[in-house]
Write a structure and sequence with these properties.
It contains three helices and no strands. By secondary structure, it is mostly helical. The protein has one domain. Helix 1 runs antiparallel to helix 2.
Length: about 40
């Protein structure tokens, strides 16, 4: 994933998580790994 695309996916993932979507669904939608989502999960 290109850096700009990854940054945007992380931004979107953070918003999804804040709005109550579960991590597995966010991973499916964004293509990010569990390791990439970990910092966003607080």
């Amino acid at each position: 994933m290109q850096e700009g695309s990854r940054r945007e996916a992380l931004r979107i993932a953070g918003s999804m998580l804040q709005n109550g979507l579960d991590k597995e669904m966010v991973q499916k939608i964004t293509g990010l790994s569990a390791d990439e989502l970990q910092p966003l999960c607080g």
